[in-house]
């Protein structure tokens, strides 16, 4: 490399703080099991472990036509899904941009916007019989305490959303009111977490799927639980049900997660300070900002970019996680793609090869850590359910998992470090692209049947 001694020493020191040893992974997974069990025992635990009211397994033979909505990621998606049986389906969908103003304004405006999007989708795709009520599955990917398949109270906002008048309210009723006010003949049959939708969508084709995971803007997971093991559950215990873990909240007490000063700075400037710490170390929304904090420190110490930052790089959240992917795969001799991002996109006046190598090292450190930490919740679920060493399919959706270089491989290696090579070889991570629309339709169907 081209780093001088001071640079090398400083960079290595930062990279070291992002290393998670195998021992630490095992401790984190064990703590995860303890927190899962607390969440299953009583309300108000750190990981909420929310029963989804989705019971029983998919067969793939379900049929019918349903609508689905997906709110909680980068876009609002409106979908029209036909389940054909035999694991087959057709889907028509449209994306709508949710503005920052809507994300942080009154909840009523957001609901009216969603209702308007559904209305224009129905108008543009006018094949749906307007005389009968349309059954809709509402994927709402925030922590919701469900009381039935289509009732649930918002606990808190995450991922940059912060609408007023929503926390503590039933989000289905709020949206159903907007449909009613606008005379849109749609019934919200189910409220669905995106991880649960992803699990059900993948299970429609592969009934043996046991976990649904999202690794995109945010990070969360769900799995099948034997309800006789859930002390806080007062319903029928003679069944399996999907549990939405809300595991992004894991270890908010900071017992085991190896938070660095760069994480703490990002957390302090986020809109949900001290919350969702596990999510913040794994999910796409945050990795770039953690990396940016490390870069800025090196700039301030005159060890990077000749001590010169730029207006763009100084801006919080400006260093996107997608840049990290591009930088990590940059194998050009002079790291041209990295130079392009730093100089053309972020307007750093000039960078040396040493600078680019430093940036690449830091991206790698933050990216590898995210993947290794992400494996802990899967190890935790396998340990808790007694399935270590059994065949298991984990359906994963999200751009981070899909596009971040070596993410899957790094997760696999970490899982092997926790559970052993043999147990790791039985676990299959499958990319389940855009499953939440299909999944919500399947769940709407289950709800409409009951
Ligand atoms: P959702 O917002 O529904 O989770 P995605 O799964 O597409 O949608 O996730 C978007 C997030 O993924 C972005 O916030 C970004 O942080 C991250 N991301 C997007 N593209 C990439 C990429 N090429 N490499 C790594 N992360 C990416």
Automatic annotation (TrEMBL):
Keywords assigned by UniProt, alphabetized: ATP-binding, Glycolysis, Kinase, Nucleotide-binding, Transferase
Limits of the Hexokinase N-terminal domain: 11-204
Record EC number: 2.7.1.-
Domain spans labelled Hexokinase C-terminal: 211-445
InterPro entries in UniProt: ATPase_NBD, Hexokinase, Hexokinase_C, Hexokinase_N
SUPFAM superfamilies: Actin-like ATPase domain (SSF53067)
One Pfam family from the record: Hexokinase_1
Keyword Nucleotide-binding annotated: yes
Keyword match Oxidoreductase: no
Family to which this protein belongs: Belongs to the hexokinase family.
PANTHER family per UniProt: GLUCOKINASE-1-RELATED, HEXOKINASE
Name of this protein: Phosphotransferase
